[in-house]
Amino acid sequence: MQGTQKTVDVRKQVLEENSRRAEEIRARFARQGTLVLNLISSPGSGKTTLLEATVAALRERYRIAAIEGDIATERDAERLRAMRIPAHQILTGGACHLDARQVHDALERMELAPVDLLFIENVGNLICPTSYDLGEDFKVALLSVVEGHDKPFKYPGIFARAQVTAITKADLLPHTDFRMDEVHEQVKTLRPEGRIVVTSVRGQPGIGEWLALVEDALIQKRRAGQR
Amino acid sequence: MQGTQKTVDVRKQVLEENSRRAEEIRARFARQGTLVLNLISSPGSGKTTLLEATVAALRERYRIAAIEGDIATERDAERLRAMRIPAHQILTGGACHLDARQVHDALERMELAPVDLLFIENVGNLICPTSYDLGEDFKVALLSVVEGHDKPFKYPGIFARAQVTAITKADLLPHTDFRMDEVHEQVKTLRPEGRIVVTSVRGQPGIGEWLALVEDALIQKRRAGQR
Predict the structure, then answer these.
(1) Among A32, A50, A123, A166, fewest CB within 10 Å belongs to which?
(2) What is the extent of the structural domain holding A59?
(3) Structure pTM?
(4) Are B175 and A172 in contact (CB under 8 A)?
C-alpha cells in the first residue's frame, strides 16, 4: 500500500505541474487569438485523415499548424507537412499521452509564428490523454463507426471531458451494426452540453458540420478576446 | 527531475511485483494444463467479437473461461456469459491495463474450476498493457483492417511482444486502403518469428486459422507438460 500512496503523490505532483504549463500555453494562444484543439481517439479512428481534410478545406483562409504525438514514427507529421503547413512530431518513446511540457518544447522548436488554428493530435489512446490539459480550447474525441457504439460508456472519462465528439468514417455505416442513437444517448449522459458531429472524408455526410464548428469556435474566441 | 526518478523507481517496483504474481498464475495453469491468452488491442478492434466466435466454435470440445478488463461497464462479460461460459469482469476504474494482481483476485472470486482455455481480454489500449505480464502463455495483438496499416511501427512495443497478431474485420478490406503486405513486413521486422492470422467473423476468411492456432497451442502445452 505504501507503493500505491507514493504513486498517487507522484501522479498528483505531475498533474499539477502539467496544469501550470498548460495555463501558460493557454495564455499565449489567448493573446494570439489562436484556436487550439486537442484531438483524442483510439489508434486508427482517423485523426490525421480528418486533419488532412480540414487543412485542405481551410488553408486558403486560415494559417494552420499541427503538433503530432506518437510513440514512434514521424509518419503523421510527414503527412501534414505534405499539405504545406508547419507540423512538428513529438515522439513519446513509450508514453501513452502528450503532456503540456512536450507541447511547450515543441512550440519552441517550431519557432511557430502566430497562426489561426493549432491542432494537437494526441497519441492514439482513449484513456491516458484524458487527464492531461495541453492548454487547448477544447478536446475533440473521435470515434469511428467501426469501433462500435458501446464505447462512450466504456471510456467515460474522455467522452465526459471532450466538448466535441466527432463520429468518423460514417461512409462505412452500411457495413457495421453501429447504432448512432445509442452513441448520442451515452454522450449526452456523460456531457449534456457536448456537441456531436458526424463526419466522413470519403462520402456523405462529408466534414461540413465539423468545419463550421471549428470556424465558429475561432470567431467566438476572437470576439471574446476583444471584449 | 527528482519527481521523474521517483516515478521510475515506483514503476520498477510495481512491475517487479507484477512479474512475481504473474509467475504464480503461470505455475497454476501449467499444473492444470490450461492455455492462457492475453488479448490486446485498441478499443473496437473486435476482441470480444472474436472471443464470442471462438467460444461458439470450441465450447463443445473444450472448457473455456474468460476474464474481461474494462474501465467501465460489465458489457463484455455479459456478452460472454450469454455464451454460457464463466466470465468475470474486472473494472479498472481508470487504469489503462490489467495487472497480475487483478487477474489473481478475479480467479479467486470466480472460484474457477480447471478449464482448457482461459482468455484474458485486456483493456482497450495498444500501449499500457504491453509491459504487464498476466501469466499468459502468449499475447495476441488484434488490429482491425479499418485502423490502417501503419499501426505496427507506430505501436512497436505491443507488436514486438505479441507472439500472434490477429488481423480482424477482414470482410471490410474492400472498403479500406489497408495494405496487408505492409503489416506483414512491419510485424516481421518487430518480431521475426511472430504469427499473423487474418480473421473475419462476418465473411471470408473466417476464423479457421485462428482456431487451429489456439488448438495447436493447447496440444503443445499439454505435451510439454507431460514430459
Answers:
(1) A32
(2) 2-225
(3) 0.92
(4) yes
How far does the CA of residue B91 sit from the closest CA of chain A (Å)? 10
Find where cell 482461459 sits. Answer: B118
pLDDT in tens, A7-62: 778 889 999 999 999 999 999 999 999 999 999 999 999 999 999 999 999 999 99
Q: Give me the helix-helix angle, A208-226 and A47-58, nearest 10°.
A: 70
pLDDT, tens digit, 9 for 90 and up, residues B90-107 = 999 999 999 999 999 999
Distance from CA of B79 to the nearest CA of A (A): 12
Facing B153 at nearest CB: one of A17, A72, A127: A72
Q: Which residue of A6, A126, A171 is in closest CB contact with B124?
A: A126
The CATH number for B25's domain is 3.40.50.300
The helix (H) or strand (E) run that includes residue A144 is: strand A138-144
Domains contained in chain A, number = 1
Is the ipTM reported for this complex over the cut 0.90?
A: no
CA A126, CA B86: separation in Å to the nearest integer?
Answer: 28
Partners of A40 on chain B (C-beta within 8 Å) are none
